[in-house]
Design goal:
The protein has 372 residues and is of the alpha+beta class. The protein is 20% helix and 34% strand. The chain contains nine helices and 20 strands. A six-stranded mixed β-sheet has the order 11-12-13-10-4-14, with helices on both faces. A six-stranded antiparallel barrel has the order 15-18-17-16-19-20. Strand 7 and strand 8 form a beta hairpin. Helix 2 packs across helix 8.
């Protein structure tokens, strides 16, 4: 029985109707799986999966000086992003650690910042404390639903519901359109590495939006998927997750997010990160594939020649590769691709090979280095 005090997304009833296994995820009642995480991960890679991500935080930053304000707090260059495009970025603290990673949607009138649920209140308070006069910070999370339609068949589904004006979007672009007389935002993006769309809607039309996407109007079976499959898919794609590959004590350089940092602009902790870059960060985020069969979990120690050289940050079984895979932070001298390390799992050592990520060919139309 789910604690009635848990927060529920606008799609909670849909999860119950589809017999989802509901869990407590950071204070939210969310589906971990419907027919099984491994099956749902396979379906998304080959067909079309539907994910409820309404627990994410949506924060609008607007007003004169909003761009300069956000530019000062993030290392990526938002000024290089034109209207109708989105950008992966990071909110940094004063020491160069990551307060949160986010997607920034550049709209004509404002900036739509989508942050992790666990960090929403922290980010919101941080922005409000720092904002200059003339800049407004507005939390729209409580009345926003978010569905993520992912997989190689997702374009057909979007086309059947919204037409070519949406299905023709290129990767990391978005449009705002109407659905049942309510404004919704649809972007071609996602957290699985597959082609797909993310749909932000107001809560009152959320149920109808779910029905429209799952109506099978184009002979594509849209399968509801849970948190378990989402985690498998993002690890297969090599995407970082806050609390695993990112936190306030990990710099973007250690997390192998160098490409996000634009040193030709001013931003918080720029000098600190530049100093780390010049000295070369001690550790590096890498991928690995288990040689010996065992499940790698976050926090497991990694050894080389009997010496601790790192820790696992994420691990899973990949049903699309039929291998145990993961990501880890490893001392740079031992982070070379094809190097063999030992992972301590329940008192025994299991061999793994350091590798690049993503771990498999991604189905999206344009490959990028990271996603949200």
């Amino acid at each position: 029985m789910i604690n009635m005090e848990l927060k529920k997304t606008p799609f909670y009833q849909k999860h119950l109707e589809n017999k989802a296994k509901i869990v407590n995820f950071g204070g939210w009642a969310l589906p971990v799986e419907y027919q099984g995480s491994l099956a749902e991960a396979r379906i998304t890679r080959g067909g079309c999966g539907l994910f409820d991500a309404s627990h994410m935080g949506e924060i609008v930053v607007k007003g004169e000086g909003a761009l300069d304000f956000l530019q000062s707090l993030t290392p990526n260059d938002i000024s290089a992003v034109s209207f109708g495009h989105q950008q992966y970025n990071l909110f940094l603290n004063e020491t160069g650690g990551v307060i949160d990673d986010l997607m920034v949607y550049v709209r004509k009138e404002d900036f739509y910042c989508v942050v992790n649920a666990v960090n929403k209140d922290k980010v919101l308070n941080w922005l409000v404390r720092r904002k200059p006069e003339g800049v407004d910070v507005i939390d729209e999370s409580s009345f926003t639903g978010l569905l993520c339609l992912q997989g190689p068949q997702s374009e057909k589904v979007i086309d059947s519901v919204f037409g070519e004006r949406i299905s023709s979007l290129s990767y990391m672009r978005f449009k705002e359109t109407d659905f049942l007389n309510q404004k919704i935002l649809i972007s071609r993006s996602g957290y699985t590495g597959e082609d797909g769309f993310e749909l932000y809607c107001q809560s009152e039309v959320s149920s109808k939006l779910w029905d429209a996407l799952t109506a099978n109007n184009c002979d594509v079976l849209v399968t509801p998927c849970g948190l378990g499959a989402r985690d498998i898919l993002r690890i297969e794609a090599g995407y970082p997750l806050y609390g695993h590959e990112l936190d306030e004590h990990i710099s973007p350089l250690e997390a192998s997010l160098d490409w996000v940092i634009k040193f030709n602009k001013d931003f918080i902790a720029k000098d600190i990160l530049f100093d780390i870059k010049m000295k070369t960060a001690n550790q590096k985020r890498v991928g690995f594939v288990m040689i010996d069969k065992s499940v790698p979990r976050q926090g497991y120690l990694i050894y080389c020649h009997g010496k601790v050289v790192g820790k696992v940050s994420s691990g899973t079984f990949s049903p699309n590769l039929s291998k145990f895979i993961g990501m880890a932070f490893i001392d740079r001298e031992f982070s070379l691709v094809s190097g063999v390390v030992d992972i301590e799992i329940r008192g025994k050592f299991y061999k793994a090979e350091v590798t690049k990520y993503p771990f498999l060919s991604l189905g999206r139309k344009k490959t990028i280095k990271s996603g949200k």
